[in-house]
Each structure stands twice: as C-alpha cells, then as structure tokens.
Amino acid sequence: MARPTSATIHIDALRHNLAQIRARAPNSGVIAVVKADGYGHGLERVARALSGADAFGVAALSDAERLRAAGISQPILLLSGFDEAADIPRLRQLQVDTAVHHVSQLEMLEQAEPGEPIRCWLKVDTGMHRLGFPPEFVRQAHARLSALAGVVGEIVPMNHFASSDEFDNPQTLEQLRVFADATSGLHGGRSLANSAAVLGWPDAHAQWVRPGGALYGMSVVAGTTGADFGLRPAMTLATRLIAVNHVKKGGRIGYAGTWECPEDMPVGVAAIGYGDGYPRAAPAGTPVLVDGVGTQLIGRVSMDLMTIDLRGVPAAKVGSPVVLWGPELPVERIAEAAGTIAYELTCSITRRVRFSEA
Ligand code: PLP
C-alpha cells in the first residue's frame, strides 16, 4: 500500500486569494510570487491556477525555464536578478525580466553581446540592507540602464520591506520615504509591496504588488492567520493512523521518552515525520486533527512517524485520517508552535509526499 501521506492543493483557494489581493490593491498589477516551487505548492500547478496574474516572480532562472516550458506566457521577473554574464542570453531567450540590484550586473549588461532586448527592474536598498542600490546611486544606475540599447521598456524601481508584517512599525514608513526620495522624478511605475504590505500598507501598493504568501492563504502577521484577512489556505497536509496503542500510565513516548502518559491512554501513530517536511521542532501540544477532532501531538516528531494523544478521540482506529494543517487547522498555528513562519513549513514538504489537486 502507498504511504498515505499527502498534500492536497486547493486550486479554488489560490484563485480566491488572488481575487482578494486584487480587491485590496485594485489599481496595481499583480506579480504572483511563485519562487521555491510556489512556496512548496508546486510551481507549474500554481502558475496555471493563477493564470489571471499579470506576471510571475521567481528567484531562480531554472524556475523561469520551467514556467516557459509549461506554456506560461505572462511576464516573469527574476526577483533577485541574474548571477553571471552567461545568464543574459538565457534571459533574452526566455524573455524574462530581471531585477538589477548591483553594479556588477550593470557592468555585465554593458559588456553583453547585442541580442534580444531585456526589461530591467531597478532594486533600491531602502533600509533592509539585503539587495539593492544605495539610494544615492539610484539615479546613476537608472541612467546607465536607460542608455543601453539592449534594455527596453520602463525601468521599474522596486524595494523590499523588512518589517511590513508589523502594521505599526515605523521602519516601513522610513523605507517608503527613502524610496520616494531616491526615485522622485523617474518616470514610470513602482513596485514595493509584498503580501503584508498589500494587507496592511495601502500607501505602498503603487503600480505593481508582489504577493507570495497571501496567495497561498498564509499570514506572517504575528498572532493572525490568513483567514483573518479573508484568505483561504491552499494546502492540506494529511496522513492516516497506522497504529493505535494502549499505553499504561507512566509510559514514555518516542525518542528520549520526553512525554510521559499521565494515565492509561490510547496513543495513535501517524505516518508523517520530519522526513516528509513536518517540523521536528513542533513540541508536544502542537494541534492535529484525527477524524476531524482536535487533539495534540505527544513525544518527539521522528523521521517517518509522529505520536498522537487519542484520549479525546475514542473512536480513532488504524486508518483514521489525520490532518496536520489545512482549512480546518491553520498552518500558522503549527508554525507558531514550532518557532517558525508558515512559509517555511509549506516550503519544506519533501518529495515523498504525494501531491494532488482539489
Ligand atoms: N518580493 C520579493 C523581492 C521577495 O523576496 C518576496 C519574498 O520574500 C516577495 C516579494 C513576496 O513576499 P511575501 O511572500 O511575504 O508576500
């Protein structure tokens, strides 16, 4: 029998979430961010589901290749830019736009052999200090790109926020101010907003928004779930019980015996572990659903298995469905328990998990 561990991707939820984003930013084009295999939901699947997006954002040229091979014809933006001169002919061939964030990329473009034109987005470091030109160099970088025969169309200045998930954090206001100063007078559109800025910073919407997590129904705003913003989870991670054991009071569960049974009790064993991408850091008490009933994992998560408190689910038996996250159990709750964010969990699902669409 096949391992019962599966990830179901909810195509309607992806479309619903795109519509929610459009409703919040009605005057912006949407660049659907599908990097990291569509945040673990499947690159081609997500791009097909989101055919209504205006463009797609990826982090790797190989992802752009996959999208073109799948027949995706919308503009694609390489969010972190290209790495080496040999990438330039590939960008041209695939008709992929690139972010330009560093003087070394300007030089590579200036020295490139003539070929099909490329569209460039100009990344400004407004205070996150990860990628981007310093504000005082932005005009010069813009002028150098504009002067290139091989660069066509609008050069769109873009920015990335460090703290937009905190709706009262003044760092975002400061980044907005620095961006406005650095780009004032440059004609054409702008792109600033990630998901949290789409949800909480309307002044940052501009001409192009770049949501990722929100498309998948996830929130990174502490203490919230996607549902709080009208979003629907796009993934259900599920498995089944493969054993139910009756353990005596005082019995210790799993590796290192970290959890001790306070009474005689039924313990379920589910066919999922960190080898499937479920976080090993999830502690006892992390919620799971068995037969649709809320209960908790107990003991340490192991590679292929986890153990579950079945005291509240007396009818549970071998074969009972177990939901790790999904519409009835927000992935944000699991992430919070495991000390991470929801994005990391969906990105971590491994290849042995069977994917399907619903
Ligand atoms: N834009 C850029 C440049 C990014 O790196 C990312 C992801 O980190 C996004 C947009 C999307 O962010 P989020 O998934 O929080 O919407």
UniProtKB/TrEMBL annotation:
<dbReference type="GO" id="GO:0008784">
    <property type="term" value="F:alanine racemase activity"/>
</dbReference>
<feature type="active site" description="Proton acceptor; specific for L-alanine">
    <location>
        <position position="255"/>
    </location>
</feature>
<feature type="binding site">
    <location>
        <position position="303"/>
    </location>
    <ligand>
        <name>substrate</name>
    </ligand>
</feature>
<feature type="domain" description="Alanine racemase C-terminal">
    <location>
        <begin position="234"/>
        <end position="358"/>
    </location>
</feature>
<dbReference type="InterPro" id="IPR000821">
    <property type="entry name" value="Ala_racemase"/>
</dbReference>
<dbReference type="Pfam" id="PF00842">
    <property type="entry name" value="Ala_racemase_C"/>
</dbReference>
<protein>
    <recommendedName>
        <fullName>Alanine racemase</fullName>
        <ecNumber>5.1.1.1</ecNumber>
    </recommendedName>
</protein>
<dbReference type="InterPro" id="IPR011079">
    <property type="entry name" value="Ala_racemase_C"/>
</dbReference>
<feature type="active site" description="Proton acceptor; specific for D-alanine">
    <location>
        <position position="35"/>
    </location>
</feature>
<dbReference type="InterPro" id="IPR001608">
    <property type="entry name" value="Ala_racemase_N"/>
</dbReference>
<keyword id="KW-0413">Isomerase</keyword>
<comment type="similarity">
    <text>Belongs to the alanine racemase family.</text>
</comment>
<dbReference type="InterPro" id="IPR009006">
    <property type="entry name" value="Ala_racemase/Decarboxylase_C"/>
</dbReference>
<dbReference type="InterPro" id="IPR020622">
    <property type="entry name" value="Ala_racemase_pyridoxalP-BS"/>
</dbReference>
<feature type="modified residue" description="N6-(pyridoxal phosphate)lysine">
    <location>
        <position position="35"/>
    </location>
</feature>
<dbReference type="GO" id="GO:0030632">
    <property type="term" value="P:D-alanine biosynthetic process"/>
</dbReference>
<comment type="function">
    <text>Catalyzes the interconversion of L-alanine and D-alanine. May also act on other amino acids.</text>
</comment>
<comment type="pathway">
    <text>Cell wall biogenesis; peptidoglycan biosynthesis.</text>
</comment>
<dbReference type="GO" id="GO:0030170">
    <property type="term" value="F:pyridoxal phosphate binding"/>
</dbReference>
<dbReference type="Pfam" id="PF01168">
    <property type="entry name" value="Ala_racemase_N"/>
</dbReference>
<dbReference type="InterPro" id="IPR029066">
    <property type="entry name" value="PLP-binding_barrel"/>
</dbReference>
<dbReference type="GO" id="GO:0005829">
    <property type="term" value="C:cytosol"/>
</dbReference>
<comment type="pathway">
    <text>Amino-acid biosynthesis; D-alanine biosynthesis; D-alanine from L-alanine: step 1/1.</text>
</comment>
<feature type="binding site">
    <location>
        <position position="130"/>
    </location>
    <ligand>
        <name>substrate</name>
    </ligand>
</feature>
<keyword id="KW-0663">Pyridoxal phosphate</keyword>
